[in-house]
Amino acid sequence: MPASPALVARTRAAWDCGDAVAPLDVRLDAAARLHTATTIGATSIAAADGSEAALRGGRGCEDGDALVVATSGSSGTPKFVVHGHEGLAAAARASNARLGTGPHDEWLVCIPVCHVGGFSIVVRALAAGSRLHLHDRFIPERVEEAAQSGATCTSLVAAALRRIDASLFRAILLGGGPAPSDRPRHVVATYGLTETLGGVVYDGVPLDGTEIDVRDGGIWLRTPSLMRRYLGDVPDPRDEDGWFPTGDLGSVVDGRLVVDGRSDDLIKTGGEKVWPVRVEEAISRRPDVADVVVRGVADPEWGQRVVAWVVPFGDPPTLDDLRATVKESLPPHCAPREARMLATIPRTALGKPDVPALLAGFRP
Fold first, then answer.
1. 90, containing H or E segment
2. Spatial separation of the C-alpha atoms in residues 10 and 199, rounded to whole Å
3. Structural domain for 88, as ranges
4. Which of 187, 239, 231 has its CA nearest to residue 211?
């Protein structure tokens, strides 16, 4: 089901019966939906038209299970994460407390509910007694209409934020990647993972109950909303004290978490290290750049070279323009050695850049 009153009603009915739910990506065809459902051991599939089909061989859930959701899988095979009712409740309480949201607010869902970023809005609104506005996809005009009709809060990714009038909302949670440094104060940059039920660090400060530890540059989290387990034979990466390794690198500066990026994204060029997010932040400040993604590409001389995929706004900037902009705030080795102009950046359903598609030579 897409985001809809039917999805909310079916979810609540399942939870009342002690069942768990697994929101499937509506963009998948019937065969792919069936494959996913059987892979996770579902006992039935409920459709938007109210029909429901039983599945043979479903193994059901354990007591306390509430949600099964796939990781984004943008750089590999997705894992299926199991969250419990206690974790969902803890996440909703902590987020609502930080934002001051309650029955007086109205939440808009306009990102996919098959990911925690979208589904957690539903949980947050139910916990707060807030009214829900449910959109099956992001359409800028509909988002602004929802705000004018009473929606006060929503969650977006950076690419979507640039396409609406953010001032129409009281609070916007921004996830799925780096947040623009010039965002309005009511736009909150969140950090978290599917395994933590989405954002558990808001503007660098952990939510109540969440703890941060940095070990050899790696970010570890311990939080009440941490997953119960992975499905299948995927090992649990937590240490004996319940700390979860995120796979991201960063630091804590003046009490705030600073995320450098995924360890796999680090570019090593000519013996120097380059974090793509810092280069993206610099380039995105240019008025002639609508969107940008930076990654490293194999290079026989440098090991890797810094490449910028750019969606121009108006006349496209030259490579020299981009290099000069980056050098204003970063060392020279961070400046891109190549720029590739595109009409659009390929993105996953959650709005994250589809990096494998870019590296494979995506052309819109």
1. helix 85-99
2. 25
3. 5-258
4. 239
Number of domains in the chain: 2
Cα–Cα distance, 361 to 336 (Å, whole number): 17
Domain's final residue, options 258, 290, 318: 258
- Residue whose entry in the numeric block shows the structure tokens 């939870």: 15
- Provide the phi-psi class of 134: left if phi over 0, else alpha when psi is between -120 and 50, else beta: beta
Taking only the tens of pLDDT, the chain with its 364 residues reads 899 999 999 999 999 999 999 999 888 888 888 989 999 999 999 998 889 999 988 987 899 999 999 986 544 567 999 999 999 999 999 999 999 999 999 999 999 999 999 999 999 999 999 999 999 999 999 999 999 999 999 999 887 898 999 999 999 999 877 788 789 999 999 999 999 999 999 999 999 999 999 999 999 999 999 999 999 889 999 999 999 999 999 999 999 999 988 878 889 998 898 999 899 989 998 999 999 999 999 998 889 999 999 999 999 999 999 999 999 999 999 999 999 999 999 987 666 788 889 988 876 6
Q: Which of 235, 258, 281 is the last residue of a domain?
A: 258
Tokens 């029955």 identify what position? Answer: 103
Residue 254, phi-psi category: left (phi > 0), alpha (psi -120 to 50), beta (remainder)? left
H helices present in 17-50, as ranges: 30-39
Whether 215 and 273 map to the same domain: the answer is no
The two tokens of residue 247 are: 């796979």
Is residue 364 in some structural domain? no
pTM for this model (two decimals)? 0.82
Q: CA-CA distance, 222 to 226, in Å (whole number)?
A: 7
